[in-house]
Design brief:
There is one protein chain. Helix content is 13%, strand content 59%. It has 99 residues and is mainly β. The chain has one domain: Nuclear Transport Factor 2, Chain: A, CATH 3.10.450.50. Strands 2-1-6-5-4-3 form a 6-stranded mixed sheet, covered by helices on one side. The longest helix has 13 residues.
């Protein structure tokens, strides 16, 4: 679902990530023993414009470290999906804390 031209802006002031950075971060998280233990989207609206769909949402997720420590994050996100070659792909998103 993540095409080569993916660009993500995650909440916080870290660097924007391309596809390679996103996948590497996921690998590191999995290798550390971390787990996603909760994922919610309390409000979601979708707008479709031809072969592009934009998702506006609020989110909440909780991560658990290998040591059992939990961290909860929440905020707002905008995601873009594009229909390419008959498949929906996700070339980018922007997340913020909502504050």
């Amino acid at each position: 679902m993540l095409p080569d031209d993916t660009l993500a802006i995650n909440s916080g002031d870290g660097p924007w990530q391309d596809r390679a950075g996103i996948l590497e971060g996921a690998r590191q998280f999995a290798a550390s023993g971390g787990k996603l233990v909760r994922l919610e989207f309390p409000r979601t609206e979708i707008r479709r414009y031809g072969q592009t769909a934009i998702i506006y949402t609020t989110y909440l997720f909780e991560l658990e470290s290998a040591k059992g420590e939990r961290q909860t994050s929440s905020g707002r996100a905008t995601e873009v999906f594009v229909l390419r070659d008959g498949k929906w792909v996700n070339p980018g998103w922007h997340m913020d804390s909502g504050q």
